[in-house]
Amino acid sequence: MTDLVQVVYISRATFKAMPASGGVEPHVARILQQSRTNNPRLGLGGVLYYGEGCFFQCLEGEREVVDKMLAKLKGDDRHKDFKVVLQRNITERQFTDWSMKYIPTNATVKGLLARAGYDRFDPYQFDQKTIEDLLTTFRELRAQADRAIPSHAAQPEVRANESGAMPYVVAGVVVLACAVAVGWFVL
Question: How would you classify the pairing of strands 100-103 and 45-51?
Fold first, then answer.
């Protein structure tokens, strides 16, 4: 029997955000690129949301592997104010086939936060219900993206909508097989 855990942590980026290139902030894109090959090897998965200088990361995997990754993440100088906001045993992964999913800022998340009474993305202010609601929203966005992108498609076209944000149904939910074994964020 496996000892699976799900951990959600938050942190603040120490880098100055730059304009998004291809829908992903360049610093985050480099981390994602570096991570791409490591998560499958480690058996880690989850989802990452980056907004307003803050990271919200759900990480799932074997307890020992997750604990080692968290220790690495805590010591990385590309972020600060690292805080675990949810940690629980699970019997199955919620983000089953994602090595790591990157969720860009989108209207669905902004709407969820507005309904919860938040005027911006600041995970340090979120209550437990909002954290759970974000995880549910990320699973729903994934399901929408899976329906919108045929499994045989190589790479979805990335287009911006009129506000400059990537639409989550077409390609706004960027599927990247990502992770970090060496370095930072299991992004």
Answer: parallel
